[in-house]
Amino acid sequence: MTLTTINLAALGDTINLSTEVTGTLPTGNGGTGSTATTFVNAASNVTGTLATTNGGTGATSFAPGKVGQVLNTINSSEAASSSSTYATTGLNLNITPTATSSKVLVVVTQAGVGKNSSNTKCQLKLQRGTTDIHQFDSDAGYNAGTASNYVGSSSVCYLDSPNTTSATNYRTVFASSADSSNVSVNTNSSDSTITLMEILA
């Protein structure tokens, strides 16, 4: 006779699943379908590639230098100054790195840069927060014989190491090389852009 059903009431006892049951409990009955009693340590005993269909990425490793995130913004508000003290251009963007070892590649095009006096130049800096990290133009629009002169745009591509996982602001600032002589950015509502790329370590 083959016993297909166990009636615990008839047996008058209980079954200890940890010591009195062997074999495989199908998934349809709440089991795993496996006869194994131990499980794999994924941290130390798994190698190879986990396919995307199984929840993986399909990659065997993540090499340094990969781009973790890309952010971009555009500013077209004209700004002018006649001071040699640096002021914000209005072009700025925040990024929150995922690791302190990440670098941030900053790509800026400051458009509509120029001046309206022959004795001055438009000076441009890149800042992280309020800290200068790169002077990318010191004589934009300069032409000694021309009072009004616009260079169109000035650009920079700078790799920074912010060493933080906090929100970090990058911005451009500008100044006139000679007080009382006017310089400007985003002239005629030109579009300036800033792109931030997190480069994974």
How would you describe the overall organization of this protein?
It is a single chain. With 201 residues, this protein is mainly beta. It has a domain of 133 residues: Jelly Rolls (Sandwich). The protein has one helix and twelve strands. The strands form three sheets. It has a four-stranded antiparallel β-sheet, with no helix packed on it. A four-stranded antiparallel β-sheet has the order 2-11-5-8, with no helix packed on it. It is rod-shaped.
Topology of this protein?
Blueprint: H1 8-11, E1 67-75, E2 79-81, E3 87-95, E4 103-111, E5 114-115, E6 122-128, E7 131-140, E8 149-150, E9 153-160, E10 168-176, E11 183-185, E12 192-199
Antiparallel strand pairs: 1-12, 2-11, 3-10, 4-9, 4-12, 5-8, 5-11, 6-7, 6-10
What's the quick description here?
The chain has 201 residues and is an all-beta fold. It has one helix and twelve strands; from the N terminus they run αββββββββββββ.
Tags for this model:
Jelly Rolls; 201 residues; mainly beta
Structural class: mainly beta
Give the DSSP E fraction (strand runs of 2 or more residues). 35-45%
Low-confidence stretches: none
CATH architecture of the domain at 67-199: Sandwich
Amino- and carboxy-terminal Cα gap = 67 Å
Q: What's the main sheet like? A: 4 strands, antiparallel
- Named CATH topology of the domain at 67-199: Jelly Rolls
Overall geometry comes to rod-shaped
Along the chain, the helix and strand elements come as: HEEEEEEEEEEEE
